[in-house]
Design goal:
- By secondary structure, the protein is mostly helical.
- Helix content is 87%, strand content 6%.
- It is built from three helices and two strands.
- The protein has a two-stranded antiparallel ribbon with strand order 1-2.
- β1 and β2 form a beta hairpin.
Length: 160
């Protein structure tokens, strides 16, 4: 597209030079037929004028195409910006939800750890009391055995 502009300008320049070099021939009066009527006039000037009008129309057409393309590009860019903002806000919302969910999970984990700690403490107390009871029971049993041994030993020398 960048090379097309200079080519068109070069062609217009050559057409202008051609028209200037042959101006006398272009302005020469000749018989012209318009299918429904005939007249006398400069055929070259008429054809040159038609050519210039067509060049102007093509330039307007190219300009309107370029303008519509730029407007479409701008609209598309605006839509892309809107979609990007929407995606960013959705991502931020997802991150916020994830953060809240993680905080909730951490709170639950802390509660479970505290409950586990309380259970361990309760189990430890229960084990201590069971050990104390067992130790007391053993001590009582040992005391009874000692008493029985003492009595048995005191009775044995009397029998001998």
């Amino acid at each position: 597209m960048h090379i097309l502009g200079p080519i068109i300008l070069a062609a217009l320049l050559l057409l202008t030079l051609f028209a200037l070099a042959n101006w006398a021939t272009l302005t020469a009066s000749t018989a012209i037929s318009f299918v429904v009527f005939d007249t006398q006039g400069p055929l070259g000037v008429i054809l040159l004028g038609v050519t210039l009008v067509l060049v102007g129309l093509f330039a307007l057409y190219a300009l309107s195409m370029r303008t519509s393309m730029l407007m479409e590009s701008r609209r598309h860019n605006h839509e892309m910006q809107t979609q990007r903002k929407l995606a960013e806000s959705a991502e931020a919302s997802r991150l916020k939800t994830l953060r809240e969910q993680m905080e909730h999970e951490f709170i639950q984990m802390r509660q479970l750890i505290e409950q586990s700690g309380e259970r361990v403490t309760a189990t430890e107390k229960s084990l201590r009391s069971s050990l104390e009871e067992a130790a007391n029971g053993l001590a009582a049993n040992l005391g009874e055995i000692e008493d029985k041994l003492d009595r048995a030993l005191t009775e044995v020398p009397r029998q001998i």
